[in-house]
Amino acid sequence: MKRMNWASWQGQILLGFLGAILLGSASPASLAAPSARKQIEAILHAQQEAWNRGDVEAFLQGYWHSPELTFSGSGGTARGWDGVLQRYRKNYPDRASMGELTFSGLEFRQLGSKAYLVLGSWHLKRSTGDVGGVFTLIFQRFPEGWRIIHDHTSAVAPSKSESQ
Q: Would you state the pLDDT for residue 161?
């Protein structure tokens, strides 16, 4: 049996230690991040499609179906899934008021293994006049998948150059 000298033994320990650190940095949360982002993007895409069909209830499937759900906007804060549904029905009573929805400028920030912050812009193309703004969504992972637990959406008036 070949004996290792002290320097070789130290080198092997160092390589093993560095390998353990590198493997440890590939935690399940970091490995799941791209998958989580793709799942959240799929929810937003499904919401956009549901909205553009005029199906508010299908649009809301991306939200946490809970009395603890919150939605904040210029009209205050709506609480609970039913409250958010009522808010959408009040503000968008028909297909014409809903228009065609697009999301853009999405930014994803992982807040932990079970939470994401998503920033973005929204735009409604409507015959009665376009509107748009920005949003902040907080997604949480539940056994049934990712759901929005808080939505803060604001309308932003178009700049003078955009409206001319």
A: 55
Phi, psi for 69 (deg, rounded to 5): -60, 140
pTM score = 0.76
CA–CA distances in Å: residue 1 to residues 4, 5, 67:
10, 13, 69
The predicted-structure confidence for 90-143, as pLDDT tens digits, reads as follows 999 999 999 999 999 999 999 999 999 999 999 999 999 999 999 999 999 999
Q: Distance between CA atoms of 44 and 87, rounded to whole angstroms?
A: 19
Structure token digits, residue 118: 């998503």
Spatial separation of the C-alpha atoms in residues 60 and 47, rounded to whole Å: 7
Query: Is the Cβ–Cβ distance between 80 and 68 less than 8 Å?
Result: yes
CB 59 within 8 A of CB 91: no
CATH classification of 31-163, choosing from 3.10.20.30, 3.10.450.50, 3.40.50.2000, 3.20.20.10?
A: 3.10.450.50
- 118 has which bridge partners? 108, 137
Q: What is the DSSP letter of 29?
A: H
Burial of 108 (0-12, 13-18, 19+ CB in 10 A): middle
Beta carbons within 10 angstroms of residue 64's beta carbon: 22
Reading the block at residue 76, the tokens are 């205050």
